[in-house]
Amino acid sequence: MSDKNIPLEDEQLAEMCKALGHPARIQILKHLLDEDRCICGRIVEIMPLAQSTVSQHLKLLKDAGLVQGEVEGPKTCYCVNREMLARLGLTINSLIPHTP
Amino acid sequence: MSDKNIPLEDEQLAEMCKALGHPARIQILKHLLDEDRCICGRIVEIMPLAQSTVSQHLKLLKDAGLVQGEVEGPKTCYCVNREMLARLGLTINSLIPHTP
DNA sequence: CTACTTAATCGTTGATCGACGATAGGCGAT
DNA sequence: ATCGCCTATCGTCGATCAACGATTAAGTAG
Predict the structure, then answer these.
(1) What is the arithmetic mean of pLDDT over A86-100?
(2) Does residue B4 fall inside a structural domain?
(3) Among A10, B1, B59, B63, which residue's beta carbon has the most beta carbons within 10 A?
(4) Residue A59 is inside which H or E element, if any?
(5) Which of A86, A20, A64 is CA-nearest to residue B16?
(6) d(CA A58, CA B36)
(7) Would you say residue A4 lies in a domain?
(8) Is residue B98 part of a domain?
(9) What is the pLDDT of residue B3?
(10) What pLDDT score was predicted for residue B50?
(11) Which residues of chain B have pLDDT under 50?
């Protein structure tokens, strides 16, 4: 419910798009969707990037609202905010007039 | 028709998102959608940016495949590639599983 | 041909990004 | 309390971005 279905403001739209504007972050997002939820270290294993770099990318995605991270002891478990992602898709589609 | 409905590759998706990852370019895109087609100078009038800056933004959008520009005498007329924009929205939506 | 309009390109500057290694902090286990 | 693991943050460096003014290129009108 809530504002799940209202389009994003330009600023927020831009921020989310910017967050997706890097191949590594798209891959990270896809992995997160595949595994449903997973730990930073797991992504580091899979991507050819340093831990600090992956952590940065995750922070960016989190700041944009596309993923959420919850601390579980010494680890941090990330998962995609599907609602936001859906809202992003919706917003882009709603830009086009006459879209059935 | 053709590949209108197949999702974008990660690289292309990232490039398009990057192109939309700036408020000015979102505004430009929206204006282009509103006016259907318009000239660079028209956008310069409306945006608080220098002509060279607007031209740069348009080039970025064009390189990403989101807008098309055709030369009309001394002017260049831009319009949104709605098919691509739709495909972008579709691609983002298709990321999410169980999306009705 | 000249003068004007329009847009793209060049060159510059400061800011931000993307990547890394190194460091620091939090938590669990020993 | 200490050790080890996991992650976030810091500092750095080169590359790219965003913005501008100035210049160039291409057409049109006179």
Answers:
(1) 87
(2) no
(3) A10
(4) helix A51-63
(5) A20
(6) 37
(7) no
(8) no
(9) 67
(10) 98
(11) 99-100
Q: How far is the C-alpha of A32 from the C-alpha of A72, rounded, in Å?
A: 17
Residues touching nucleic chain C (CB < 7 Å): A 18, 21-22, 24, 48-53, 56-57, 60, 71, 73-74; B 39-42, 44, 51-52, 55-56, 58-59, 69, 74-76
Residue owning tokens 């192109």: B19
What tens digit of pLDDT does each residue of A22-72 get? 999 999 999 999 999 999 999 999 999 999 999 999 999 999 999 999 999
User: What CATH code is carried by the domain that includes residue B71?
Assistant: 1.10.10.10
pLDDT computed for residue B1 by the predictor: 52
Which residue, among A11, A16, A17, A37, would best test binding to B if mutated, counting the most B CBs under 10 Å from its CB? Answer: A17
Domain of residue B29, residue span: 10-93
The rounded distance, in Å, linking the Cα atoms of B43 and B40 is: 5
Question: Above 90 in pLDDT, residue A16?
Answer: yes
CA torsion angle A91 A97 A100 B1 (round to 10): -100
Strand order in the sheet with B75-80: B37-39, B75-80, B67-72
Give a yes or no: residue A34 inside a domain.
yes
The per-residue pLDDT for A5 is 79
Kindly tell me the burial class for residue B73, based on how many C-beta atoms sit within 10 Å of its own C-beta (0-12, 13-18, 19 or more): exposed
For chain A, the domain total comes to: 1
CA–CA distance, A12 with A63 (Å, rounded to integer): 11
Query: What is the full DSSP assignment across A80-95?
Result: E-HHHHHHHHHHHHHH
